[in-house]
Design brief:
- Helix content is about 50%, strand content about 0%.
- It has a domain at about 5-40.
- It has about 60 residues and is mainly α.
- It is flat, with a radius of gyration of 19 Å.
- About 0% of the residues are buried.
Length: about 60
């Protein structure tokens, strides 16, 4: 398998964050806290309707 330094860095960062916050639940709580702290900066857009195409079978 090909080694990619960016993918390796992402994996290391994920492992570090999971260890720092005690797993996925702790990391999720941290992200929620950040989101709550910056609520005025979080953008929530309405979902866009699906695009209709003329392709057959869709």
């Amino acid at each position: 398998m090909m080694e990619d330094p960016i993918v390796e860095e992402v994996h290391k960062t994920r492992e570090r964050l999971l260890a720092e916050y005690g797993g996925m639940d702790g990391l999720r709580r941290e992200f929620r806290a950040i989101e709550d702290e910056m609520r005025d900066r979080v953008v929530r857009l309405e979902p866009r309707p699906p695009v209709r195409t003329r392709r057959k079978g869709l």
